[in-house]
Specification:
mainly beta, six-stranded antiparallel beta sheet, disordered N terminus, 166 residues, 45% strand, four-stranded antiparallel beta sheet, single chain
Length: 166
């Protein structure tokens, strides 16, 4: 299987995109209220691609995208975070599961072991496949602070399509 890409090249349909947020920075942090699910947005202020014409995230809708049923992706999510009360606060980051598939299993709980109001660097790699709902509707990254408030900034999504439908 080969696909002709807009720039005229021939490839396998496999590639990567990196989206760097420019809105939430160390001077303008995304505030996370206690027990409130928040979409982890990324405005794509800087976007890097393995080749032109591919996108695996839409900064305007905050949706993670998929090309085809049964495509496989690996996403690296990076950000800095902090909590005022590190002893009782943790974050939950997960893909949205409202499209019918239990994508919340693609998630992680994030503790704050460095202490109160200390910046933590978060880096996590997730792997997932696309069902038809994911292809049709996309998904979002959701983040929830439990046990207290927290903040997030310097958000990066690095998404790789590792397998095209076979």
């Amino acid at each position: 299987w080969r696909k002709i890409y807009p720039q005229g090249g021939i490839g396998s349909g496999i590639g990567w995109c990196r989206y760097d947020d420019g809105l939430y920075t160390s001077i303008n942090k995304l505030a996370l209220l206690e027990d409130t699910k928040t979409v982890l947005t990324n405005n794509g202020a800087s976007i890097y691609r393995s080749y032109d014409g591919i996108d695996y995230y839409n900064p305007a809708t905050s949706k993670v995208l998929a090309d085809n049923l049964n495509d496989v992706y690996i996403v690296t999510v990076v950000f800095k975070c902090q909590a005022a009360n590190a002893n009782q606060t943790f974050l939950r980051l997960q893909l949205d599961a409202t499209n019918g598939t239990p994508y919340e299993r693609v998630g992680v709980d994030i503790p704050f072991p460095k202490g109160n109001d200390v910046a933590h660097e978060f880096h996590q790699v997730f792997q997932y496949y696309a069902d038809q709902n994911f292809v049709d509707n996309g998904s979002t990254w959701e983040i929830t602070a439990t046990g207290g408030t927290a903040s997030v900034w310097d958000i990066i999504f690095f998404i790789q399509k590792t397998q095209s439908f076979a």
